Amino acid sequence: MTQRLRVAAVVNPAAGSDGDRLVAALEAVGTAEVRTVRTTTPGDAADIAYKLAADAEPPDLIVGVGGDGTIFEVATGLYRAGDSGAPSVPPLLVAPGGTGNSVYRGLWNDEPWEAVAERALRGNATARTIDLARIEQNNHIVVLGSGSGLFAATLLAARNRPEKGRELLMAAALAAMETHEPYPGRISIDGEVLHEGGIVETIVGGFRYRGGLLNLVPESMVDDRLLDITVVTSAVDMNAFAQAAVQGNVYEVPGIRWGRGERITVERVDGQPVLFEHDGEVMPQTTSSYDIRVVPAALTVLTAADAPPWFKEG
Question: What would the pLDDT profile of 166-187 be if each residue is shown by its tens digit?
Fold first, then answer.
């Protein structure tokens, strides 16, 4: 008799999708014993994932069921377990349990969840390592990516809107664009200045998509040991940029700057706090600069055998 997989699903009940439905799809495959652990407060998922991974008998697979913020927490817990010497950290399977589900798109290219569950639990998925990043000012691990300016303002605008799913983030972005002003900034990559002047927003990847729909770092690879950044300067026509973000050709828009390196510094040069986010969470405005450094091959994830094109190692 084939031994059943031991699967732990870390579920955020407050996320944007039906977590119970996503877990039920895992159970319906019939090849695994699925244990569900629900979060109760922000930050829970990191501690839960750490304890699961560091256990003397860890599960064969950990599933993150929540939005990109929840996935950030689960990934942080798994990274901490490996960094502290846990001998066998399980791979992470990401479920589309949130609003934008950008990490899910980056790993599975929006394949239907039921098909992904089948692949993963029947041995037809591939384990690959992806890069993470670390913010030096607060030691946070970054999974999806980070950014300053307009995208962070979009996340704030989304908090009080009635829309749901990816439409929420699109509507919030349009609302934020109406009042958002560029900030005086400087972007450096590995110590070299890429841009100094007016900045509307920056997007550091990581994964290419934000909000599940906008391809904002279209050349970024998730396993090349480097970080990409897109800089939307104050010279950019935002209507043209918005259209290009949907089409995936933002680097053709005049005024866009982009680069790639191991360490990226985003700063305001007027000394005011910079509006900054990572993994869909807006940071307290307490510092005028952030330094983001790549952490190569830091997390093992399940993906399709035919990985999306943003994997270098296909």
Answer: 777 778 777 787 788 999 999 9
